[in-house]
Write a structure and sequence with these properties.
Two copies of one chain form a homodimer. The longest helix of chain A is centred in the last third of the chain and has 20 residues. A five-stranded antiparallel sheet of chain A has the order 12-1-2-13-14, with helices on one face. Chain A has a single domain, classed as Glutamine Phosphoribosylpyrophosphate, subunit 1, domain 1 (4-Layer Sandwich), CATH 3.60.20. By secondary structure, chain A is of the alpha+beta class. At the A-B interface, helix 3, helix 4, strand 14 and helix 5 of A face helix 3, helix 4, strand 14 and helix 5 of B.
Chain lengths: 251, 251
């Protein structure tokens, strides 16, 4: 399984991804899921992958080595794109290409080749954008109303994002909230695991400000996990106990 | 959809259930899912239902009117049971009986008749117990290590229970935490909805101490939701911002 979230705020973009993959319950590995495509001061794009590792790795390979354009046949890498929109369409083309190849196998119907990507970034002089790209290659985009998107095991980490993230959130607070959201997921689902990869791109800088791997030894993240647990326990203690009793006529 | 949780602590048992049912996304109704079977001072049992409403309602009807024993053919109601174990087996028998009837239909394969129940309570002079009864009629039981069980849309509301509930939690704190867990689910999944039904059974009293319906106008629950949101926002503000930057050699 996987959990990745992307948060697009007024001053920047944050992406957080775990690294655990599993083939069944008893075959667990570590693979980077947050991939960076960068020409500093020109183009910065981050792609976070969830789903079939064979498909997501091959999609990433195509995007680095060249995807054939369905109309012209011309091969282009993700860094050849002239806009985030063109790049998002290219990711979709790469997904379809890999599916066409893999789904040709006689046994393919019995395998789940599903994938989903978060794709965010900015090209110089263009807008900072964040997309979620579906298995079919179509996509949606984060807006001021809904400034975060998630892929993979998203439910455990959604309540804190729902409550605390807005478009006006500071990028480092957004990163912190992404880590709190990840912490809830790590605790409740063993198939999401450390280390984490995080990226922070400040709007209009077109260069990553944070690009960090967080593992078990990371002091800040350990403190955040502990502080958050303590805070949650204290928060509920401040709420008075329920005043309810037995009402006549209740069934 | 549905969310119900049951929490078994040293001093009692709490059960919380929503009431929203949906046939598709555009057909929403309200049905009680927390059902009480009570002979005061003799037997108190609570059954919370998730899944196909046609199956859960018919299971409840059988349990009130009599389920045939698979061996003897004798009809017994849930209140005829002499132990929680016998009662849990009877719930399983009722599920199998309803499935045998409904799955006979030519179109049955296309319908999801799946159900899950939480079943808790105590008979005089016996132990207070909490079970989760699966679609096949088998069941598991809450223990001191894992004092809570959930059915339905369980993921949004799990992080707070994971962190804050233990066997030593006071029953009214457990009820409060069940309501916080429900609040997270209500916010994130529209198919879980108010009003709620809650029950609290103090150990060895064999009489419900709380049996309450909570709707939009409930002042305590409104305050709890608001207080919890404020507390979460404040909790993350107390955690310092991440110290991360760009490390050389990161991909």
């Amino acid at each position: 399984m996987t959990y990745c979230c992307g948060i697009l705020v007024r001053d920047g973009l944050v992406m957080v991804a775990d690294t655990r993959t599993n083939a069944g319950l008893d075959n667990i590995s570590t693979f980077r899921k947050l991939h960076l495509f960068e020409q500093p001061r020109e183009k910065v794009m981050m792609l976070a992958a969830a789903g079939s590792l064979s498909v997501t790795q091959t999609v990433i390979s195509y995007l680095r080595e060249g995807v054939p354009d369905p109309q012209t046949g011309e091969h282009k890498t993700l860094l050849d794109a002239h806009s985030m929109l063109e790049a998002a369409i290219m990711v979709g083309n790469a997904i379809r290409l890999v599916h066409q190849t893999f789904l040709n196998a006689p046994q393919a119907a019995q395998v789940d080749f599903g994938v989903t990507f978060l794709f965010g970034g900015q090209l110089a002089d263009l807008r900072l954008r964040l997309f979620m790209i579906y298995n079919e290659g179509n996509f949606i985009e984060a807006t001021e109303d809904t400034p975060y998107l998630q892929v993979g095991e998203h439910k455990y980490g959604k309540p804190i994002l729902d409550r605390a993230v807005s478009f006006d959130t500071d990028p480092y607070d957004a990163l912190k909230l992404g880590l709190v959201s990840m912490d809830s997921t790590l605790r409740s689902n063993l198939s999401v695991g450390l280390p984490l990869d995080v990226g922070l791109l400040r709007r209009d800088t077109v260069a990553l400000e944070v690009n960090q791997r967080i593992d078990e030894s990371d002091e800040y993240f350990s403190n955040l996990r502990e502080s958050w647990s303590v805070a949650l326990r204290e928060a509920h203690l401040k709420i008075p106990r329920p005043p309810y009793g037995v009402k006549d006529g209740q069934v």
